[in-house]
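Researcher: Structure for this, please.
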Amino acid sequence: MSLRLRHLLCLALPVAALACTAPSADDATSAEQADTGWLGDTSYEVGASFRAKVVANAQGELADVATSDETQMSVVDAQWKYAKLQLEKQGWHLNQLADSLRIVDKQVDGRKVTLTYEAKVDIIHELRSGADAPSLEQIEPRRFELKLPSEPTGAYARAGGKCHENVHGDSPTADYNFYYYFSPKEGCPLAMENVTLSIDQVYERKTVYPEYDQLLSGLGQGRKGFRAALVPAEGDNDPMSRFDAHKRMLERDLGLTGTRVDDDKILRFVLEKEGTEIEIDLHDPTKLSLTPSFRAALRSYQLVFFNGHSRYGTRDFLTDRDSFSDKYQIVMMHSCRSYPYYVRQVFRGKATEADPTGWAAADVVATGESSYPTDSPRTLKPLLQGLSEGLAAVESGRATRAPSWLSMVSKMNDATSGIMYGVAGVRTNRWKPIR
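Model: Predicted structure, token format:
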């Protein structure tokens, strides 16, 4: 069981019971802070909550759903993400992994398990650049009536093509992406759970910084700085297109020269500024296997950057807890809608007994909307430049000149439009310039 799920304190009862009821809701609470600590200049994050029932058959991957906290969480996550299109029509973008979960009742009838639960979730809304986020009272409406499949597993087949809308000319092909197109329109044969989602809180937006002190100590042997891994996927048409685009940016825009290392699998650049260094390893996607390469980077680098398709949130880069380093890390997922898909995966992987939120050792740069491969180099550039400037400012005693997270994110959004770049897990960052 993951540490994060132990903090959720979901209740479990034996499968053998024909009809079981969990103890009262007062017996189950979550110690986890319920949001992702999101910060962006073109978006703001709110916390919301809802109560629902979900049905699952205790077989296959869900065989232990009556007794496993982790499996129960996966079933709830699978149901909640079906709110995606319904909320998007109201201008909201969901984080499709729940913040916290409380099981308040459970019924077991043979293999059929029905969970009644309360969940806290995050959603973000676009914001005019430079504008202040609204207060809770200024948000209208704050309650949304949603329809979610009562049993998300196998919903695609049972829907018979009658429960979705095409999006950008595409349509669902299986359970894994059915939620993305799901629309509970008239004639949909699926059993539905009627859910009321309530916005409860507008999260604070504040000036915060990367943990520059921890980045400065990442190289050792007297060198000040840290190591960065750029892990692009193969391009859609030309396998080397993403690699080449980042190489051009590093050479042309940052004036760097690369050196081939690790049997020609990596092109290494060094970004130096006033006695500080960022050692940048650009991975060749034609010579390295993507998932193992990314997971290896998580173990060894303090900045790990991905450019490629999100595949509806099914990438497995971040699902192996043992792949993460114990050090403070920045993870940037330059892929479509990586805020909904991948931000909380990082925090679940980085959580510890001392830090159940996972925030202390991770900041995650992500996208609220669909992004494009061509945006990747132009948005990575201000991240590398900003971090380099920050290291140099701190090391030279001019810490007040170190760029904040919001200033770097703002430059990313200036370089493109409509993507809602932001960074998560930063609201409680400790480093601050001495003024």
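Researcher: Any notable elements?
Model: The first strand starts at residue 43 and ends at 57. The longest helix spans residues 375-395.
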